[in-house]
Amino acid sequence: MFNYLVFTVASIVKVRETRVTGLLSNILIGLSMFMLPYPLAYIPTAVLDGLFLYMAVTALNGNQMFERITLLFMEQAAYPPNHYIRRVPQRNIHKFTGLQVIQLLVMCSFGFAPYAYMKMMFPVLLLLLLPVRHKIVPRFIEAKYLAALDGQHQ
Length: 154
Prior knowledge:
Residues 11-153 form the Bicarbonate transporter-like transmembrane domain. The chain contains nine helices and no strands.
């Protein structure tokens, strides 16, 4: 007798939206600002730091830049089958990520600078990101690859 393996294909029946819990927790955190300074004075700073750190780490899930940074430490065979990774050469992905990291470091260095005159330049630098993206970055990466990396053609 032949023993046949039977494979069943799972199909998605229903998608349950789970953004409501995140929205409610953020609303409650925002409402806690109205309770200043009395109830928040009893909450240790380490608890608040942990809360904001947790919110920051959970926000990294699904962030395309963070996912591309993790690609720097992976072998190419282990890359996830995302659409833009299949259409863009590895070198261009890493160039684009490097340019974005440089821009982020410049923004953070001015935003967190101890000098007030450097902090005043932050909005100007923020506006300069647009011409950098549209005039300078296309000199390093072809337009068809930029369109895939930007997620315009999903």
